[in-house]
């Protein structure tokens, strides 16, 4: 039976739920999917602005839809802003976390599933699930609202169907997931051999303490020495691991985290740019402007104006 969860209660009857559907272990969030219908749905998920304390990875596919708010996703070595109307696709290959814009809470609907067990036995023709297409540096896990109207329409139809309580719901959800996953494969074709980069979970785990420290304290002064100490590594080893796993130096990752957090804050037009700069860890407006331009090729004022249009 389909598990549909809310923050405080279940939406369906006669369904046992373990820790709201998750078995939490360090770094791993096991989904505990029902073998008969391996799909869990959270209709009223939310993320506040509290920094997440550790990266995690699921043992299944996560499809998300942001219904309100904004914030930042950290997926592998990617830092991805999200806003209301965006959808997310995260496979079991990538460690991730997210938090909302400071002072806000974002609202979400999440679908967690095992595509092979849920769909393959019921496929009328050959069904393909190539999870390696949807991970690594070339894949942008946040699909902005308006970028692919069919994918977003299918997500909205999934959400509407999940709210139903009749005997047709499960079969309709399965059919919609067939369509959505097939469209994902059409939208994101198989990459060349040189691009088939599978994230190294073991290597990434060596720098998780530094990533967590940055996520929690990006707005404070942080040194490479402190980041290395958190990982029990030398500075040189930390830099080597960052280069391999993140494709950048620890300093650049910290700067990028600050700029992405600032970009999310700029969507609230009541925040003055100087306040945004200081709140995101920059000690001067000029330093903020330089860093922002490196990431977005425009200054913060131009970025805010662009978001209004």
Automatic annotation (TrEMBL):
Keywords linked to the UniProt accession: Activator, Cytoplasm, DNA-binding, Transcription, Transcription regulation
Highest taxon in the source lineage: Bacteria
Domain HTH araC/xylS-type: start-end pairs: 208-306
Entries under SUPFAM superfamilies matching the protein: Homeodomain-like, Regulatory protein AraC
InterPro entries: AraC-bd, AraC_XylS_family_regulators, Homeodomain-like_sf, HTH-like, HTH_AraC, HTH_AraC-typ_CS, RmlC-like_jellyroll, Tscrpt_reg_AraC-type_HTH
Sample GO molecular function, one term: DNA-binding transcription factor activity
Protein name: HTH-type transcriptional activator RhaS
Organism: Gimesia aquarii
């Amino acid at each position: 039976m389909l598990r549909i969860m809310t923050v405080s209660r279940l939406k369906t009857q006669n369904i046992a739920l373990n820790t709201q559907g998750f078995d939490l272990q360090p770094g791993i969030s096991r989904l505990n999917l029902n073998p008969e219908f391996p799909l869990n749905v959270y209709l009223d998920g939310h993320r506040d602005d509290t920094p997440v304390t550790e990266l995690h990875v699921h043992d299944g596919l996560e499809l998300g839809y942001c219904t309100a708010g904004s914030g930042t996703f950290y997926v592998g070595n990617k830092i991805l802003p999200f806003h209301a109307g965006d959808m997310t696709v995260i496979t079991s290959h990538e460690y991730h976390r997210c938090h909302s814009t400071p002072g806000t809470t974002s609202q979400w609907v999440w679908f967690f599933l095992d595509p092979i067990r849920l769909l393959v036995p019921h496929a009328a023709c050959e069904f393909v699930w190539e999870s390696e297409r949807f991970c690594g540096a070339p894949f942008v896990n946040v699909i902005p609202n308006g970028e692919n109207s069919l994918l977003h329409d299918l997500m909205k139809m999934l959400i509407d169907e999940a709210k139903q309580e009749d005997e047709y719901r499960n079969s309709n959800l399965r059919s919609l997931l067939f369509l959505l996953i097939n469209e994902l494969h059409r939208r994101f074709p198989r990459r060349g051999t040189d691009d088939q980069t599978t994230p190294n979970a073991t290597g990434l785990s060596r720098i998780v303490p530094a990533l967590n420290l940055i996520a929690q304290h990006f707005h404070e002064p942080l040194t490479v020495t402190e980041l290395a100490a958190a990982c029990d590594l030398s500075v040189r080893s930390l830099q080597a691991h960052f280069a391999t796993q993140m494709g950048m130096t620890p300093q650049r990752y910290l700067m990028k985290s600050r700029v992405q957090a600032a970009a999310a804050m700029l969507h609230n037009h009541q925040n003055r740019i100087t306040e945004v700069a200081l709140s995101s860890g920059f000690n001067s407006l000029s330093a903020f402007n330089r860093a922002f331009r490196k990431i977005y090729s425009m200054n913060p004022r131009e970025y805010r104006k662009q978001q209004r249009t």
